[in-house]
Specification:
Helices cover about 60% and strands about 5% of the residues. It is mainly α. Bound molecules: zinc ion. Pfam families: S1-P1_nuclease.
């Protein structure tokens, strides 16, 4: 009995440590918090009806939590967190590849969930779930490695060390860079959300496809500067901290734009 349990534990550990799929807890909350500060009055009212009194940050990580659901009810949603695209250097080629992707993915599902929310026939429960997923997935969209290559599963198979600990490139971008700054999510949101109205408008311009391409280009840059076997520490933080913070801010502002357009 004991050995079965230890095997199960080991398997669970391997599964959770080999592949990770999202900004860590703080990253998603920072993005949700920034977005909440940029909602229109109408969007705020509609969302309160759907989500209740909790802030967006409260729900932001739920789509990752349900990956631990053992009933299988959410199995199909695990592919909604990313869209793997091989390196494309111009937007036209990228968009073509993006639209040719088979199956549900981050891109196709953001569109599906948005139309579910708009559809008056969608039940109250399903609308709430769709909204929570959108809050989360627009955060994933801003994590560059969620638009990375398929061959290495968005950097999951690129082994690196971070301050001596064995990890992978995807995981560094999910949580380690953000967590290294040691801010709470409210502190970080406040520190980053300082752009002028014009700058915010500029960041929120473009289409969903443009935003994905933006992340994809950053992913290509990260790949080029982080080969397999890299030993990462302070110099990597120094090199990429601005990029990570830009992505948290842009993720939040673009999530707000998507929701404002939706309601
Ligand atoms: Zn995710």
């Amino acid at each position: 009995m004991k050995s079965i349990y230890s095997k199960i534990l080991l398997l669970a550990f391997v599964a959770s440590s080999v592949y990770s799929y999202a900004w860590g807890l703080t990253g998603h909350r920072v993005i949700a918090e920034i977005a909440e500060n940029h909602l229109s009055g109408k969007a705020k009212r509609e969302m309160k009806k759907m989500l209740g009194q909790e802030r967006m940050a409260y729900w932001a990580n739920w789509p990752d939590f349900i990956k631990s659901d053992t009933t299988g009810a959410w199995k199909q949603a695990s592919a909604w967190h990313y869209v793997n695209i091989d390196p494309q250097t111009d937007f036209t080629a990228f968009e073509k590849d993006l639209k040719a992707q088979a199956g549900a993915n981050l891109y196709s599902q953001i569109k599906v969930l948005s139309s579910q929310i708009k559809d008056v026939k969608t039940s109250e429960k399903d609308r709430k779930i769709a909204l929570i997923f959108l809050i989360h997935m627009m955060g994933d969209l801003a994590q560059p490695m969620h638009t990375g290559r398929s061959g290495d599963l968005g950097g999951n198979k690129i082994n690196v060390t971070y301050f001596g600990d064995k990890t992978n490139l995807h995981s560094v971008w999910d949580g380690k860079l953000v967590d290294s700054q040691k801010y709470s999510y409210t502190e970080y949101a406040k520190l980053l959300d300082i752009k002028s109205k014009d700058e915010v408008k500029q960041i929120q311009s473009g289409t969903l496809e443009n935003w994905l391409y933006d992340s994809h280009q950053i992913a290509n840059k990260i790949y080029a500067q982080t080969p397999d076997g890299s030993k990462l520490s302070y110099d990597y933080q120094y090199k990429f901290n601005d990029t990570m913070e830009r992505q948290l801010l842009y993720g939040g502002l673009r999530l707000a734009k998507l929701l404002n357009d939706l309601f």
